[in-house]
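## retry 2 of 3
previous attempt timed out at serialization; input unchanged, resubmitting
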Amino acid sequence: MDIIHFSAKEVLEMAIRIEENGVEFYTRAGNATKSERLKELFIFLAKEEKKHIACFEDMDKRVESNDLPGSIDPYLEEESLYLKALANSRVFTSAHEGKRLASEVHAEQDVLQTAINMEKDSILFYYELHNAVRDKDKTTLRNLIQQEKDHLRKLTELQKNFLRSSV
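## retry succeeded, writing output
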């Protein structure tokens, strides 16, 4: 049974917000640092987030509108509340969350770990949403998850290289 609370368009809107806040986080953190190495890292990560925004916007152009069926099972409201709470607490769906987090990380290793955690949280959020979209929208959601997994792989490799070079 599908828990139909979100269309693919709504999921993409959330995904775009998450990435926009990631751009804000990396841009603000880059502007605040005096370390050239750290500044370069933040610029790279902001560019990665911008690539995701472009990808998600392109995907958004290809999906159907937000038309949902007229009735939704009232017993599924708890699932909807869980997903909204997950989005609000674990990923960057609220405005200016990137700015707040940027003020909390300063070291290169910290920003890499924060970025990795952001990607993991985004992947978890999208997996949870998988049961909240119509069958015809699941392909779009699987594409979002793949994009985030690719970004996580890049960040993990960057972290490994950073750890090797700082030893």
